[in-house]
């Protein structure tokens, strides 16, 4: 049995699990929410016992140190020497990484070089990798890539309408993100529907501070909302989502900038729900603020509208869907947003049962006369990561 520590560092949260493989037994798990925001929330679960505390603002590095400390104090391990491997979710692998890899210095340097493909994530993930290399010296570390799931996208959805020579020479394409989650959701949906995945059309929605939507046709990814970088698709916590590309030189001129870096940073870190509302990037804050604040209400409406637009487009693109899947922090925990999205899709004959939706239990949420199933499936990127790391370790042996 191998104890693997899994680190899933996102733009606003850090999830972790200590898993015993190959039994897939979760020894301890937790989540640090509201990273870099006042009132960071630290949750830990061991043996069915849950604890929650609100602390001063934590960043990703101080959150990692707290996780390691909690592993010992809550009984996950007696000593950190029991951790035999670390697996990291890495957002952007570009065309270099098509599957999980063991992290060695040259590969870590390659991850740094890919930072422009995921400016909010890859630099952060490299920091976590380097910190854990110090804290857990000698423990092998592995990377599992979000982008790997989308390497097989058909060219007609994977590339942009730019000169084809640019596409090939500079490897410009839709890389997609949240692939670990979308793959897990598709597999779980197939089990839930008791059908072979190869026979299913699905639309999986990973809706959180980072949000992406994927169309699955005949069991394989066919299209996805994030593109060359994770800033595209629907608006998110701090990311703009799709904008006219000429917005960048336009703002450079208006702001008297000589390089685009400031605008790109603002599109990634100061836009989306935060930028429109002026209140917060957190959906929970926006629901409360929207009672009196018109900009907060506008941000919520824009988010729902953009999700509906993409889901509706994917529905026609793949010739209908057997099921729509909600996951992610918003998708799993926000019945108001789920209801609004499905209401926006009513023209397609998709309906949600209001009682089931409010209850928010894993499983089917659709009304009896809905044309497609509506599933709530909590994503488990960490389990998918553990399987990838375990397979790689077995191949090494």
UniProtKB/TrEMBL annotation:
The record marks 178, 239 as: Transition state stabilizer. GO terms for biological process: acetate metabolic process; acetyl-CoA biosynthetic process. GO terms for molecular function: acetate kinase activity; ATP binding; magnesium ion binding. Pfam families: Acetate_kinase (PF00871). The keyword Nucleotide-binding applies. It is an enzyme of class 2 (transferase). Pathway: Metabolic intermediate biosynthesis; acetyl-CoA biosynthesis; acetyl-CoA from acetate: step 1/2. Gene3D superfamilies: 3.30.420.40. Catalyzes the formation of acetyl phosphate from acetate and ATP. Can also catalyze the reverse reaction. Homodimer. This is Acetate kinase. It comes from Secundilactobacillus mixtipabuli. The gene is ackA_1.
